[in-house]
Write a structure and sequence with these properties.
Blueprint (H helix, E strand, L loop, with lengths): L6 H4 L6 H31 L20 E6 L10 H6 L5 H13 L7 H7 L10 E7 L10 E6 L2 E12 L10 H4 L17 H17 L20 H20 L7 E12 L16
Antiparallel strand pairs: 1-2, 2-3, 4-5
Helix pairs in contact: 7-8
Amino acid sequence: MLTIHGLRFLAASDRPLYERIFWLVALLAVCFYMFITIAAQIRKYLNNPVLMSMNNEIIPISKIPYPAITFCNTNQIFESFANLTYLLDKDTLTEEESNILDASLTLCSDYKVRYSTMMESKSFNLATNRLLLEVVIHNPAETPTAYHAIASAEKDSRTAIVVTPKLVLTSDDLKSWLPEERGCYYNHERKLRYFKYYTQNNCNTECEINATLEKCNCLQPHHTHLHSTPVCGGFAMKCYVGVLYEALDDFRSSHCKCLPACTELTYEVYSYKTPRNFQYFNLTDRMIPLN
């Protein structure tokens, strides 16, 4: 005897026709919903066969590589040489001003400065009386990029930085799976040209390098490159900007396919600042202002 509620009413001859039709429609709707749910679960499993879970096991700090720390001075251009805020706000530039702007943008086209950001904010004022250091905390196997955790240390302030490592490991049982199925690459599965170790950041950086070289026939000064590769000058800045904001996404999807590494190490950074005017303190007596 079936226990599905309503099914027995379909064969009951003493039931009115409209009631039997109602139960038929209800049962068909339930079966249709059941098949849709099962198909969705199967599709979800096929698209995401790997389950991510948090391991609460405590790992000694000695087992985690010490992060690389990169200091970068944002004051790379003296205001007496070029007031970039003034030049970017001008509608028409002279030939000399255009050359100065091209040279300045080439110098500042490192990992933390993007041309469109300067054009949108109009506040790229590198005044010499304000010292700002950017501290980049990153995987020692990677070069610093704008995608890494960045903290800033300003003049006349005390900055405390808290670094929390995040380590993602993948079970060895998944080595027989295809990278697309497990969603990551083991280090031996994907070799990079400019980096010894595979990480997703290194792959994205190399993808940007290859796209820039293909579109502009040169590389930016901050790019890792071979000695024989030409370095872009100021004339190639527009080409590089076009690569970053137009061609790079298509290039990544068609050429790069930068999946995460199966062993991925990243660092979360929190910084705290307190004002401190150091010019009023010296080494011998911290309560006496300097003359």
